[in-house]
User: Which sequence fits this backbone?
């Protein structure tokens, strides 16, 4: 047996160091554990400061003793390598372990043990923990805002249907895969709009937009029989013609009367709210901001000076101002420029404002991708005789967009996180509803529960989005 | 516009504002003009942005380096912090700190002093204030120290290029920053006394602190939320920057005999900074713009004072919203021009 040198443990007396080190470490953790879970103070016989730091000192010595390189014990080596490489790391590791042990009991007791789950009034919450009865009572409001209770199935049904229609892409067979982009970019947003307009809002069955849809459907059906040579001219002229015909030629009283028919009770947008409004706003802004941003980024790299400088000015303007002032502008300033009899719903104004704002950010992200492509790609495409649009659609954009998936995902995340700002124009999504519920005289003093609840909801949404974008990035990653 | 009977003009800026602002860096009350109110709001915005930027940078750099630690626990803790705080909307975080966390603080009469001089209460954070004599001499001495540091740096650089020897610039700089202001105390007749806040009874149940400096809870919660939120993004920038320096660089530096400290200082950091600075600038800009969320918790920033109260009183929506937007544009463009200049300065000089 060699002499024990406690200052520099080595392999020769492995077990002596190991047992003493582990027992010291366990002792220190035990002290903190008992202190924090059962408020027992094992070291109360010592003076205050020493008693306070004792677990740290003991644990530190323990970690020092078990820091033996190449001990041959796998578990010990893993521990040493990961949390115990040197004195500084050992100290930090101990601090983190102790902090976790210390903070667990208060958190557990607040969230679960002392919390109240049952009941439907403030009196039910007497414990010192969280009052989840509050969330339970207000759950409907947090989800649907001021939307009438009896009509909430309309929102549920719309969202379930839209989720189902959105998931169609996963089940598409090879044959239909090529139409998926068209479906998601053109058809799906239209369906979503119709659902929200007819179903959630309860709008009249016929109105301008439905003329447009009828025109589009008729012209697409006829379009299959048109020779491809004329297709472009056909699609430029015919849909608009049909729309005008529908609107101004078949413009007779009965049809207008028919247009006034409402299938569902009208719910004005001011009553929408809660998490469903968060979804509606972020969904439409996502859809609109992407194409606008795409065109802005192309415009910024255009050779035509007018387009270029307009795009630059537009992008830099939106990027330079905070969203809250943009919303102020849309709610206070914008209506002044409208003709007197014209009225645009505030939800629509908000969606337009947020879309334009985020479009500027999307544009900059896409521009990064465009700039990252080597010049050779452009030259190669041009040498094949491709024009500007052909080159971009088939060569440049597929590669550029692939590169910027993380950036676009970040912008979309920022968009979702910006939706609470619509409180400025008086629309109350989930955070706004929380603030409203907080001031209810029957439920005063439960701000914490509400914010924790909303934080968890937002965390789940945003974390899922970021993980999905990461998967997408991995899926489309090509070796370059 | 005409048919709504609205006129256009900026003449209202000189009119008397007749509203009060709770927290102001310059002297202000209702008898001052709207332009003065605008200045109050602007200064408050700048104040919270600067505080936020400083703390966000400190937290961000620490967390970013912790993300690279070989210690599993530290790395995970930093990762959890980043994932958690950046996936929750900033507005929600501000509300959380203001309405939930800071409301749990004690009333002034029940507040326990921290280190005997700081009082953290529901009415704000009370800290000791300095009372200065001949403050300007002290400021001159600090400026002189900064100028001297520039000279020392230039000299050190020249010396390194000519002779290849290093000068401990950091030590000399810290020394200068301490010695020159200290001299101003000893020789220049500068005198500072500390005023500790003392509790005072206003009425039977209402207490407050007298003396010292008061940081309102709005400012604290806003600065806290802004810096914690932005720090997560800065941490990711720092991590990406340090990871972006290729391993070969470090090995090459070590193989020519540089010590680990020198490797970090002379090889890794200059290259990492090039990657870190542009996205970090963006985060600073975002923080400045996000400070406009102050309006939600009634911190009197530009949006609340000017685009809120002043707009309600005058009804001049176009002028006020346009001035507000122009101000933010100017702030953004100023920061980005400065950062572009700095970026260009440290960029690789290709010959």
Assistant:
């Amino acid at each position: 047996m060699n002499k024990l040198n406690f200052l520099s443990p080595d392999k020769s007396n492995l077990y002596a160091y190991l047992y003493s080190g582990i027992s010291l470490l366990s002792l220190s953790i035990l002290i903190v554990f008992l202190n924090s879970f059962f408020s027992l103070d094992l070291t109360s016989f010592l003076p205050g400061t020493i008693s306070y730091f004792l677990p740290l000192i003991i644990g530190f010595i323990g970690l020092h003793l078990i820091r033996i390189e190449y001990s041959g014990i796998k578990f010990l080596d893993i521990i040493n390598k990961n949390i115990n490489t040197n004195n500084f790391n050992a100290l930090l590791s101990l601090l983190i372990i102790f902090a976790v042990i210390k903070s667990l009991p208060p958190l557990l007791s607040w969230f679960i043990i002392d919390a109240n789950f049952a009941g439907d009034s403030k009196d039910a919450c007497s414990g010192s923990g969280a009052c989840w009865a509050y969330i339970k009572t207000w759950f409907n409001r947090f989800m649907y805002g001021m939307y009438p209770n009896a009509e909430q199935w309309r929102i549920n049904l719309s969202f379930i249907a839209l989720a189902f229609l959105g998931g169609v892409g996963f089940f598409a067979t090879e044959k239909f895969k090529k139409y998926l982009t068209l479906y998601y970019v053109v058809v799906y947003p239209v369906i979503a709009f119709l659902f929200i307009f007819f179903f959630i809002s309860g709008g009249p069955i016929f109105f301008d937009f439905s003329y447009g849809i009828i025109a589009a459907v008729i012209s697409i059906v006829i379009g299959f029989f048109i020779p491809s040579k004329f297709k472009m001219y056909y699609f430029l002229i015919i849909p608009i013609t049909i729309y005008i015909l529908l609107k101004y030629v078949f413009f007779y009283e009965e049809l207008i009367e028919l247009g006034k028919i409402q299938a569902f009770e009208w719910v004005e947008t001011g009553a929408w709210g809660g998490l469903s409004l968060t979804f509606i706003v972020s969904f439409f802004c996502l859809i609109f901001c992407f194409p606008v941003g795409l065109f802005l980024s192309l415009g910024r790299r255009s050779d035509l000076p007018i387009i270029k400088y307009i795009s630059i000015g537009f992008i830099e303007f939106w990027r330079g101002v905070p969203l809250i002032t943009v919303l102020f502008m849309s709610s206070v300033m914008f209506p002044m420029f409208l003709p007197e009899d014209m009225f645009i719903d505030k939800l629509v104004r908000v969606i337009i404002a947020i879309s334009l704002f985020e479009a500027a950010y999307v544009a900059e992200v896409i521009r990064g991708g465009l700039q990252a492509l080597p010049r050779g790609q452009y030259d190669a495409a041009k040498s094949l005789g491709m024009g500007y649009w052909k080159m971009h659609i088939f060569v440049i954009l597929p590669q550029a967009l692939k590169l910027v998936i993380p950036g676009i995902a970040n912008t979309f995340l920022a968009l979702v996180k910006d939706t609470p700002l619509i409180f400025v124009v008086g629309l109350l999504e989930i955070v706004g509803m929380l603030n409203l519920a907080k001031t209810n005289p029957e439920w005063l003093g439960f701000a914490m529960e509400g914010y924790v609840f909303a934080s968890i909801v937002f965390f789940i949404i945003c974390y899922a989005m970021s993980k999905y974008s990461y998967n997408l990035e991995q899926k489309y990653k090509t070796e370059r | 516009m005409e048919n709504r009977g609205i006129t256009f003009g900026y003449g209202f800026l000189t009119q008397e504002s007749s509203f009060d602002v709770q927290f102001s860096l310059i002297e202000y009350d209702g008898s001052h003009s709207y332009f003065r109110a605008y200045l109050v709001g602007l200064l408050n915005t700048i104040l919270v942005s600067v505080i936020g930027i400083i703390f966000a940078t400190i937290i961000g750099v620490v967390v970013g380096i912790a993300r690279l630690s070989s210690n599993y626990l530290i790395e995970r803790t930093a990762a959890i912090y980043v994932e958690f705080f950046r996936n929750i909307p900033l507005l929600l975080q501000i509300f959380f700190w203001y309405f939930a966390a800071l409301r749990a603080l004690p009333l002034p009469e029940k507040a326990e002093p921290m280190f005997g001089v700081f009082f953290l209460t529901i009415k704000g954070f009370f800290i000791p204030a300095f009372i200065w004599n001949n403050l300007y001499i002290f400021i001159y001495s600090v400026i002189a120290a900064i100028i001297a540091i520039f000279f020392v740096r230039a000299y050190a650089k020249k010396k390194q290029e000519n002779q290849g020897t290093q000068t401990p610039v950091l030590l000399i700089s810290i020394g200068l920053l301490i010695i020159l202001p200290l001299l101003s105390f000893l020789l220049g007749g500068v005198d500072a006394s500390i005023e500790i806040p003392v509790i005072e009874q206003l009425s039977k149940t209402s207490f407050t602190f007298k003396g010292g400096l008061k940081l309102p809870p709005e400012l604290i919660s806003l600065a806290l939320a802004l810096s914690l939120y932005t720090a997560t993004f800065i941490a990711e920038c720092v991590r990406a920057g340090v990871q972006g320096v290729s391993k070969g660089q470090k090995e090459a530096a070590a193989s020519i005999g540089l010590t680990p400290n020198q490797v970090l200082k002379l090889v890794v950091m200059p290259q990492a900074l090039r990657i870190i600075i542009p996205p970090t600038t963006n985060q600073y800009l975002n923080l400045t713009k996000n400070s406009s969320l102050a309006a939600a918790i009634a911190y009197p920033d530009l949006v609340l004072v000017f685009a809120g109260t002043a707009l309600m009183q005058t009804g001049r929506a176009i002028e006020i919203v346009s001035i507000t937007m122009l101000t933010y544009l100017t702030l953004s463009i100023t920061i980005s021009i400065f950062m572009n200049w700095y970026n260009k300065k440290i960029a690789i000089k290709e010959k």
Remarks:
- The mean pLDDT of chain B is 82.
- Residues 2-103+210-346 of chain B form a domain with the MetI-like fold fold (CATH 1.10.3720.10).
- The first helix of chain B runs from residue 34 to 67.
- The radius of gyration of chain B is 24 Å.
